[in-house]
Amino acid sequence: MSELSLPDDARPEYDDARPEHPDDALPEYAERVLEVAESIPSARVMTYGDVAEWLGEGGPRQVGRVMALYGGAVPWWRVVRADGVLLPGHELRALDHYRAEGTPLKEASRAAEGHLPRLDMRRARWDGGERAEGHT
Is the pTM of this model over 0.85? Predict the structure, then answer.
């Protein structure tokens, strides 16, 4: 189940998305997803599918679920939709991060709903490059 399919009152806030109790251990898959999210360099992004492919496990929906539940402790704005659309409900916070980091954006046309830019996926997408060597 993706975060988008959850009722509004059941969606966790990304900044506050942590296990209820500090002693609660994260599922191993969630730890691996969050490690990948932390490894994405500033001003770069990976899609949910890229993260799943990198791990060789799960898929975009599973990665999205992990990010929705536990992503507040990592740079969640760097794990994105493949179409470059900003995360619904978190667009302005994500946009602040993208602008501060210099993440490549495509400005929205005046006809676009909300006039929000999209990520320039061709320039912003990261393939795991140099930092990937230490990944297990």
Answer: no
79, 40 contact by CB (below 8 A): yes
Rounded Cα gap, residues 79 and 72, in angstroms: 12
CB atoms closer than 10 angstroms to residue 136: 4
Which amino acid appears at position 54 of this protein? W
Strand partners, 79: 46
Give 82-89's long-range contacts (Cβ < 8 A, gap of 24+): 82/47, 82/48, 82/49, 82/121, 83/118, 83/121, 84/118, 84/119, 84/120, 84/121, 84/124, 85/118, 86/116, 86/117, 86/118, 86/119, 88/4, 89/11
Q: What is the pLDDT of residues 98-111, one digit of tens each?
A: 999 999 999 877 66
Residues 77-101: pLDDT tens digits?
999 999 999 999 999 999 999 999 9
